[in-house]
Write a structure and sequence with these properties.
There is one protein chain. It is globular and about 50 Å long. The protein is built from seven helices and 18 strands. Strands 10-9-8-11-12-18-17-15-16 form a nine-stranded mixed sheet. Helix content is about 20%, strand content about 25%. By secondary structure, it is an alpha/beta fold.
């Protein structure tokens, strides 16, 4: 999730704080970075192979040290939870994140759309070879969760966002997961991609005296990224201004190098609009204005201009592998391609 304001760091003394529903079981008022454990296996959650037929899921996975909090806010010993709930084929995705954040640092949190897109990547890796050996880019990566699971099978993954605090946290999550998810850290590249400067990003060299320079792109990395065939983005649709910048960046990236497919996950969030005098999903209509929508029969709708073609994916065909979230009806995944020269009737 791209930061909504300036780079990392604190602005005003009393900045508004927001919290993802994924973190509702975390200790209230906790400040700083927290570590959560998300479990998945090659068998979807609730499948007939689950031990004792247990299909329950925790609504929160927050854990710090050897303790965790259950959905009722009660303290749970982590060792007891592992013994009771983990199966022999379980994998654990360890994510460092903020429990709350300012609006401009929302990328420090875990959001449901990222968990949904993680399920999609896991499903592809468990059932097909489509993502094996590819070069992939996660755009507005936030905690980097999607890129981390893709790294299990990819040739190269670029995890991108903006702001030193968010990028430092992405890099920490790479270190936390490389051994358990069995990927080579050298094949995962955390880089800054500011949508305001679009694509390609500035080129530079690493300066050991400037820690933030470790996220600067080299010319060879930009060339390699343009050969990517798969793009991922989760929970980047919530501000019309950022949506404009996002699609401008994606258009330039998808126009360069290899043919690319973007998988974008979002959650529609509803608020009362004084302009519409109704409850509306902020930013959703603006998001769809960029797309020629393809229906289940392959027919194209909505626009006569060339550009992005989007198809909403059927989530009933994507099992839930990650247990620690609830799939709500307002979650969506879109498969988006770019056709700069194709005009629709």
């Amino acid at each position: 999730m791209e930061a909504g304001g300036g780079g990392g760091g604190s602005g005003g003394a009393e900045e508004e704080q927001v919290m993802s529903e994924v973190h509702l079981g975390c200790p209230p008022g906790f400040s700083g970075l927290y570590v959560s454990h998300f479990t998945f296996s090659s068998r979807p959650s609730g499948s007939s192979g689950d031990e004792d037929g247990d299909t329950s899921r925790e609504s929160s996975s927050c854990a710090s040290g050897a303790v965790a909090v259950d959905e009722d806010g009660d303290l749970v010993l982590d060792r007891r939870r592992r013994k009771k709930d983990l199966r022999s084929d379980d994998n654990v995705l360890t994510i460092q994140h903020g429990v709350t954040s300012s609006l401009k640092s929302v990328g420090l949190q875990v959001w449901k759309a990222a968990l949904l897109l993680t399920d999609f990547v896991l499903h592809k890796s468990f059932t097909t070879s489509e993502f094996d050996g590819v070069t992939a880019i996660e755009i507005g990566a936030g905690t980097g969760m999607v890129g981390l699971v893709q790294a299990r099978v990819a040739k190269r993954v670029f995890i991108t966002d903006r702001g030193a605090d968010i990028l430092d946290n992405c890099l920490a999550n790479v270190h936390l997961n490389s051994s358990t998810l069995k990927f080579d850290e050298a094949n995962v590249c955390v880089r800054e991609l500011d949508w305001k400067t679009s694509w390609p990003p500035p080129v530079g060299t690493y300066d050991p005296s400037d820690p933030s320079s470790r996220y600067i792109w080299s010319a060879s990395e930009i060339e390699e990224a343009e050969k990517a065939t798969v793009l991922f983005a989760a929970d980047v649709i919530y501000s019309d201004d950022l949506t404009d910048l996002f699609f401008d960046t994606v258009k330039k990236l998808m126009s360069s190098g290899a043919k690319k497919v973007l998988y974008l996950a979002l959650e529609k969030r509803y608020n009362f609009s004084l302009d519409e005098l109704d409850v509306v999903a902020n930013g959703y209509a603006h998001f769809q204005s960029f797309l020629t929508v393809q229906d289940e029969c392959g027919h194209l709708h909505n626009t006569s201009k060339p550009g992005f073609i989007g198809k909403q994916m059927d989530l009933t065909e994507i099992p839930q592998y990650v247990r620690e979230y609830d799939r709500v009806k307002d979650l969506e995944i879109w498969k988006i391609t770019y056709h700069p020269d194709q005009k629709q009737q």
